[in-house]
Every structure is written in C-alpha cells, then in structure tokens.
Amino acid sequence: MALAYSQPKDLGLPAPSFCLPGTDGQTYCLKDFDEAQVLVVIFTCNHCPYAQAIRPRIIALHDFYDELGVQFIAINSNDEHAYPKDSMKHMMEEKYNYSFPYLRDETQDVARDFGAACTPDIFVYDNARRLAYHGRVDDNWKDIEKVTQEDLRDALDDLLNGEKPGEEQQPSVGCSIKWKNEKGGDNA
User: Fold this and answer.
1) Are 35 and 66 in contact (CB under 8 A)?
2) CA–CA separation, 170 vs 167, rounded Å?
3) Are 152 and 137 within 8 A, CB to CB?
4) Which residues have CB under 8 Å from 60's CB, separation 6+?
5) Is the residue at 184 inside a domain?
6) How many domains does the chain divide into?
7) 114 membership: H or E segment, kind and range
8) Exposed, middle or buried, 187 (CB in 10 Å: 0-12/13-18/19+)?
9) Residue 188 counted as domain residue
C-alpha cells in the first residue's frame, strides 16, 4: 500500500465547479449546495484501508453537523478499471454508500481541479466557497481510541462560530488517487 499525503493548498482559493453523478441516480453540481454554511468535499474510495478506517468518523461528523448547515460530499475519482471496487456499481452497495452525496468522477477532472492527491483528501469551504481547511480528520487514522486531536471537527466548529480555522493544518494521509494510465499498482 503506497502512502500518500494531501498536497498543500493556499487557503482562500475558490471551490472548483463540478457536476457529477451520484449513487442515488441524481447529478450534483457545486451550485446545488449554495444554501450550506460550510461545504466539506472528501475525495475517497471504497478499497483504501485509510478511507475505510475513517468512514465511520466521517459519517458521525456528518450526522452531527448536518442540521447545523454543514454539507458533506464524497467523491470517488479512482480508476475503476484498475480498481473494480471503486466502480459506481460498488459505490452503490450499502457498505460503501454514504447518507450524503457520494459522487463518481469518472474523468478524474474534478480531482485534478481540486488538486486531490490521496484518499481521503478533505477540503472544507466557508460560506463564500473559499478554502478554509485542507487536512486530516484527526491525529490517528488507524485507532479511534487513540485520537487526541480532532482537526476536522475543530475546523467545522471554527467556521460555524464565524472564525477561521488555524493556518497550521496537518495533511491528510491515505492511499494515492489511482490515476488512469499509471503504470504499476500497489493493491491499496
């Protein structure tokens, strides 16, 4: 399994526009989420052990913040030919699907526009759709019992309280995004 980190991004960048199909049969565009106070975009996939480990934490965060005006979106950009578990068919299975939009980026253009590098790669946008947070969920992806710092939760709380998250943000860690036409493969 190849370890990858999210790549630093300048805070304040606007959210890239997108329109992608979801597991529920609908197409979602950035403008569809204009009402949300905060927008959380998570590049993830089905097969990555890092993404699988934090999935329950992402769902719990969504469940807590949903009524507070925070919109979560998950996007899978992996090459489904090299990683069949990341196909739309598998994304629609209950064990992979989310209670918020889970979108398929077949062309991988959206991942490139965001500058996503790994799964999970988390981008949080304020109500003006400017990048306010780009980092990890917490400080221990492997063992929730050993988490001492909940970075994503702190960032969401800051934004909902009208504050900016701190500028020192720790990168997310996970499997690299599986780009089409890449040689090799690492089974993760």
Assistant:
1) no
2) 10
3) yes
4) none
5) no
6) 1
7) helix 109-114
8) exposed
9) no
Q: Is residue 13 one of the residues assigned to a domain? A: yes
pLDDT confidence of residue 95 = 87
The answer to whether 117 touches 176, Cβ cutoff 8 Å, is yes
Q: What is the pLDDT of residues 106-156, one digit of tens each?
A: 999 999 999 999 999 999 999 999 999 999 999 999 888 999 999 999 999
**How far apart are alpha carbons 18 and 50 in whole angstroms?**
25
Domain span at residue 157?
A: 3-176
Query: Angle between the 151-160 and 49-65 helix axes, to the nearest 10 degrees?
Result: 30
Which CATH number goes with the domain that contains 153? 3.40.30.10
Alpha carbon distance 68, 38 (integer Å): 9
The amino acid at 38: V
Residues facing residue 125 across a β-bridge? 39, 131
Burial of 137 (0-12, 13-18, 19+ CB in 10 A): buried
